[in-house]
UniProtKB/TrEMBL annotation:
Its EC number is 1.3.5.1. PROSITE patterns: 4FE4S_FER_1, 4FE4S_FER_2. Keywords: 2Fe-2S, 3Fe-4S, 4Fe-4S, Iron, Iron-sulfur, Metal-binding, Oxidoreductase, Tricarboxylic acid cycle. One of its GO terms (molecular function) is 4 iron, 4 sulfur cluster binding. It comes from the Bacteria. Residues 213-237 form the 4Fe-4S ferredoxin-type domain. Residues 20-31 have a biased composition (Basic and acidic residues). Residues 19-54 are annotated as: Disordered. The lineage of its organism: Bacteria, Bacillati, Actinomycetota, Actinomycetes, Bifidobacteriales. GO terms for biological process: respiratory electron transport chain; tricarboxylic acid cycle. This is succinate dehydrogenase. InterPro entries: 2Fe-2S_ferredoxin-like_sf, 2Fe-2S_ferredoxin-type, 4Fe4S_Fe-S-bd, 4Fe4S_Fe_S_CS, Beta-grasp_dom_sf, Helical_ferredxn, SDH/FRD_Iron-Sulfur, Succ_DH/fum_Rdtase_Fe-S. Pathway: Carbohydrate metabolism; tricarboxylic acid cycle. It is an enzyme of class 1 (oxidoreductase).
Length: 309
């Protein structure tokens, strides 16, 4: 009976690890970097993407028993609890709602908590040569069984989210993206004012939306700022040349909200060289959005809205 049949499967997680260089004792005594006090760009957390982190990098394999339907996050938690407590990764909700656990899995930006072992494990040696000396070209699952033994599901490669500086192991520094979103005022600036009645009570009002307006708002407000689209975008690199697809989706969410009164100012804010003009319409941002937003199409529509106003 194979391992698959008796329910015992193994997978190897190949993790790109990174340990930052220890802060120098002299800097600590001074209360951090001396540059920070002189407001150098290197000391400002808002520009941390410019700084190249220094430290030790290495690849580490962890092989563990799994069920094929386990998520990659389940595997990492198991490693953290039973094999290596030093392994660092970030997560919160565990079911695709918070966006905190975006990493690169087999080179594709995606969420740890929604990626299953069965979908992402790949044969560790797909170019196996068979007993007669022929290179195997058959079904990948055959190769997998022969190459790594019954029940071995193969390898999953993990790295921090591309396009962002790494802080430690699988944790990327996403401050740059959050600051870019913040700059675009991601909150409702409504036209309505709370009026009071003659006897001092609040005169409540309501915003009416038609079903199309509501649907647009609901779709775009699904964004969880995970950064997966940014990690997929060949133009965005955590720097300042392009504000990035996540920030543009945040802008679009309010520009298309019929209750917001600042659409023109919001469009002015993204009508810049590092805004919509920097988007090359590659549309790689669309492919991996875990919230089902067609990011490339939404940005395309946003560009048309800005140009046609
Ligand atoms: S648009 Fe999609 S991929 Fe991009 S940050 Fe929002 S949820 Fe993540
Ligand atoms: S842990 Fe919240 S989205 Fe994955």
């Amino acid at each position: 009976m194979s391992g698959m049949e008796n329910g015992v499967n193994t997978v190897t997680l190949r993790v790109n690890r990174f340990a930052p260089r220890a802060e120098r004792a002299r800097d600590r005594e001074r209360g951090g970097s001396p540059f920070a006090r002189k407001s150098s760009p290197f000391g400002d957390s808002g520009t941390s993407a410019r700084r190249r982190p220094r430290g030790k990098q290495w690849l580490q394999d962890y092989t563990l028993n799994v069920r094929p339907e386990d998520t990659v996050l389940d595997c990492l938690l198991k490693i953290k609890r039973t094999i290596d407590p030093t392994l660092a990764f970030r997560y919160s909700c565990g079911h695709g709602m918070c966006g905190s656990d975006a990493v690169s899995i087999n080179g594709t930006p995606t969420l740890l908590c929604t990626a299953s072992v069965k979908d992402w494990a790949k044969p560790s040696n797909p170019t196996l040569v068979d007993d007669e000396g022929f290179r195997h070209t058959g079904d990948v699952s055959d190769i997998q069984e022969n190459a790594v033994g019954a029940g071995d599901l193969g390898v999953i490669e993990l790295a921090p989210l591309p396009g962002f500086p790494v802080q430690r192991d699988l944790i990327a520094d996403i401050d740059q993206m959050l600051n870019q979103i913040r700059k675009l005022k991601p909150y409702l600036q409504a036209r309505g004012e709370l009026a009071t009645t003659a006897d001092g009570k609040i005169n409540a009002f309501e915003y009416l939306q038609n079903p199309q307006q509501l649907a647009k708002y609901e779709l775009l407000s699904n964004c969880i700022a995970c950064g997966t689209c940014e990690g997929s975008c060949p133009v965005y690199a955590g720097g300042e040349a392009f504000i990035g697809p996540a920030a543009l989706i945040a802008a679009s969410r309010f520009i298309n909200d019929s209750r917001d009164g600042q659409a023109n100012a919001r469009m002015d804010a993204i009508d810049s060289a590092d805004g919509i003009a920097a988007c090359q319409s590659v549309r790689a941002c669309t492919r991996e959005c875990p919230r089902g937003i067609d990011v490339g199409e939404e940005i395309w529509q946003l560009i048309a809205q800005v140009k046609e106003r």
